[in-house]
Amino acid sequence: MTDIKKTSNNSSCCASNTSCAPSIERRQMLKGLSAGMATMTGAFSMPAFSMPTFSMPRMAGPFHSADSFTTKAEGPIPIDKKLDKDWVKSLYARGSATTYKGWQQLQYIGMPISGLGTGTVYIGGDGKLWVWDIFNEHHEGVVPQVYNHPTLRNEHGDSKIKERNGANYISPPAQTSPWHFEQGFAVSIEQQGHKIRRTLDHKGFADITFKGQSPIADISYYDASTKLNVELEAMTPYIPLDTDRSSYPATIMRYVFTNKSASSMLLSVEGWSENPVLQGKAKQQNARLLTSEYSDKSGIGFISTAQGNDATAQQAINALPDFGSFAMMCLDSNSSVAVDSELATLTANLELEPGETKEVSFIVSWFFPNQTALFKKEHKNIKRWYACNYNDAKEVALDIANSINDLTSLTRLWRDTWYDSTLPHWLLERAIIPTNALQTNTAYRFDNNRFWAWEGVGCCAGTCTHVWHYAQAVGRLFPDLERDLRERTDYEIGFQDNGAILFRGEYNNKDATDGQAGVILRTYREHQMSEDDAFLKRVYPKAKKALEYLILTDAQGGMPDGITEGEQHNTLDADWYGKIPVLSSLYIAALRAGEEMADVVGDKEFAKLCAAIYQQGQKNILKLFNPEHGFFTQEIDPNHSDAIGIGEGCYIDQVMGQWWANQLNLGRLYDGDTIRSALSSLWDYNFCPDMGPFRDSIATPTAKGRTYALAGEAGLVMCTWPKGGRQGDWEKYWQYGYFQECMTGFEYQVAGHMVWESDEEPEFLTKGLAITRAIHDRYHGSKRNPYNEIECSDHYARAMASYGVYLAAAGFESNAPKGHLGFKPRMTDKGSFKSAFTSAEGWGSVDINNEKSASKINITLHYGTLSLNTLSFRTEANELLPKSIPSMVKTSHGNASIISKGKDITLTFTTAIKLAKGETFNVEV
Question: What is the dihedral of CA 582, 584, 589, 595, to 10 degrees?
């Protein structure tokens, strides 16, 4: 989280020692820049109120003055949400992939199509590649701009909204943004003596449909005059658990052409690019641009680079951020290359008979290894990861070309596995989309194999612990990256002698209570997603010391009682004091995780200590629950009564520890009824069906917070004071602006938690889905880029909490060192359930088919291996009674004993089983 203004407090994101607000050198404007899209006033300023008109389905209302609202001082949030019945029904409908059609819906689309940690490249709604943030420029936002807001003001009365404060949310950049160089694809069609050339974008085709199922984009083009149909499949290799083969600095563009006319046609398919190396500044750098062709058995291509005019010039340009190479390759035997002074062009020639289909594939690759994200002097020579494996962009392209069938089939297999599910299509889309932050300049892989990240593109350095611990996707899809963060960053670079963990690694000098607990919880998750105990045994001594540091924080008033006290820095960029529900909740969860980890390594004494403190905490935290309010509140430290805090507020993260515990299968942390009361209060008092009236009710422009939800859009507000008790001098705290905002990572945390709790309170399923769907609707392509969730800058890491909603819906359990896998779905289709899963060494699909008197379970492994000692699942068979369940059952892989608990069944295999790729396990109970 970053602050709204720049502060000298070095614990903040924008402290001077974090260099969070670098100066940006403007790049040269290239030919093809559409006139009128930007004005040069030190930053790009977009026209005010340029949002397209598009009517989303009504989700709630109408509301009237007679309705019951929260206190007027807190804004008009209706207690009764009046959710539209048809809208609620749509939450559960399986549906189909979201498609966009027409330039109004296509212009904002920017789906990241680059490898993990290789820069930002977008595939546009019309198939145009844009943004091209691969040149190691240091700026916030995918497209830097400042928006002049008509009513919002900062503390200085300034109306300028920067990228970190939501500029690209309020005024989303369109594809015509100038941040590109001249490149593209086209097809020339010769038919019955007539010839026409059409660029493969919205300028060449009027009939375009975009379907984005991350990590693959499918774009359809149709030309009515020639009856040519074109299907583009765009992707970069993306294979969960295979981080290296998911980290190519490249994009694959596969075009499939179908002649739907009654006459034959000749096609010339072109791909071209100007030389982008040094970004048009070659003469200034005493260098010249070079482009040359190459070929091998896979196809033909060209590579562009730059060469210094002498040895001194070459040495100088070698170190520049935008020095490197760029390549394009055509995987067609009947292709050619032409190079002129400005552009290089690849051409493939095809002949299509009526009804015939042929395809042409291109690989676009880049190699600009001189990263500038790690801006400390001691990191000057660290390069991007791909520099370890390649010398230039040509080598990247050739490597992909030689393995393209394997790479593309595995990427398609993951896409198909993810979306072949009984879960609603919209939910699957929204759960996976924020993971694309890994495919942007939010995330980096370095040549020392280190994983490092901002909070959002170019903003807030150091893979911040109190932000990244919300992100559940990385630990499940690419767990080696999270293990690296634990070992190299949290338990090495940021680790202090007393056990404190600097929450920005080498980029700050302070710990954060929530981030500290989050590291411990993530350590246990990373253990569960490891094939054995080796990782945990390596990090355990420091994980133990990190937990002991929290115990000392707890013991400041005497003996530890399970409630943290004293100065407690947290993700809202301030030091809070007193007894704080969210921080104690996370601490209690960390104690439980600590107990489990201690048991694994045989540290019985520490396990006993963690258990004893936890048992006190699970009782003492209930003292922070206000039964009259129905939610947890902060007990203010009288010695710090002037410090910021939530006080009597209903805060979004108040029971977050249980959310974490659910994902780690740690069980109930403390009283479930009380936790569910808190969640109910968040729905009643914080979920706002229309953020317009709520924001309008805040009289002070500087206190409205950042704009991540507009009028007509729903969201879960960070904190409200429905029973009063807000600090009288609240306006003096700049952080108070946070409390008025809607930030997706926090919202997903509550939504996922509600889904987990729907076992006991079924209506929570609808409420959790509604919160998630509100985000999905806010990011509809007609309004802004559906693939860019914004908090503090673009592609914000905390948004990867969305994956936690999916884990809750699936009731997913994994403990690979124990050989355990579990599925206890909260969402089924007439009692049946199907979804993707990932484990430590493999991924695949689970299919639970519940019939009247039996349950059939199939687990198919699509990638890697899967070792199992135990398997848990939930049965919906309504005639299945405990007395009818046998003690043993025969499976496809041997016998297993059965233990049942309500609808939940656990199989323990007589002999451990191991599935290989393509193998299916099945059992009927």
Answer: 170
